[in-house]
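Quick illustration, no need to memorize.
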Amino acid sequence: MLYKLNSMDTFIKGFIFDSRYKPYRHILFWIVLYIDEIFSLVGLTSEIEFPELIIVQLILDVLTVYIALYLFIPRFLNTMQYGLFLFLVFVSILSNIQFYFIAENHYYYYEEDHLSIYITSFVSTIGIIGLAIAIKLLKQQVKQTEERQNLIEQKNKIELQSFKDQINPHFLFNVLNTIYIQTQTNVAAATESIMKLSDLLRFQIYDVAHKECISYYRETTFLRNYLDLEIMRRDGLQYSWVEHAENLSALTIPSFIFLPLIENAIKHSKTTHASNEHISIEVSKSDTLFIMTCSNNIGDIKHPKGGFGLDNLKKRLHLLFNSSHKLLIEQKEGIFIIELSIPLDELHNNR
């Protein structure tokens, strides 16, 4: 019995929301509204004197409803122009009634009580268009709620995966091995490396635990430590970090949002000629945008796919900023370039 109930729920949901059933939904809507007139036309109830008027009324109602659903709602209601939306709906209802009276005057002549007839028609028409708009808005609300829930679930999965990828065991083992070698040859360098690794782990495990955002200063300090440790274990790798703006430390940014760019540059800059390995990071800010550009030489060593990756970064950026950000990726003259632009009003001001 439970299986049949679930199957019925699935069918009803599909009928209401699936675009395949859209023509049937609309036909059913008009059949329900005009059921009395349909019964009269087929002889089940008292005959209508002028059936032509039913056709005229149906055409006018269809035009009024669909103009409201597919023109007024997207262009005015969804853009929060509520006054203009209500005004246009009101005008369309009055136009509907007026055109119907023009058609009806060919068959009837009302000597008196025009206002009562007009009010009755107005109430009837506003009931039809109001019902159609209510159904449309209810469907929109249900779909938006479902989409938000799906986005939340997707965001949780992506963030969980990103957290798993933040502490890379292979990276840690390599760094620890390098530090061990340093303890045999250069104790001062080993001490500095241990401090950087300690800061890196503290940031990952404690500073950003359960935090969606972090200060720009803390995030970039973490990234610099990460790069310094990579340089320590890779002979020949170099990086430059240039900031073309002031007051960047006042910004709060999503935690680990830049890490995939750095990881990608480190991974794919590796070559058989170590002296050619270079990563360049530039940070700038305009009146409206925060911009980070990360570029690296394109190495000749192939790597298996894995890790956080640019694909997951794109998904996370979409969840965080929808379509307000830009992620430009290009290759030219042996250089791989990624430019991430985020509107400043999407970032928090940490003051």
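The two ends are 59 Å apart (CA to CA).
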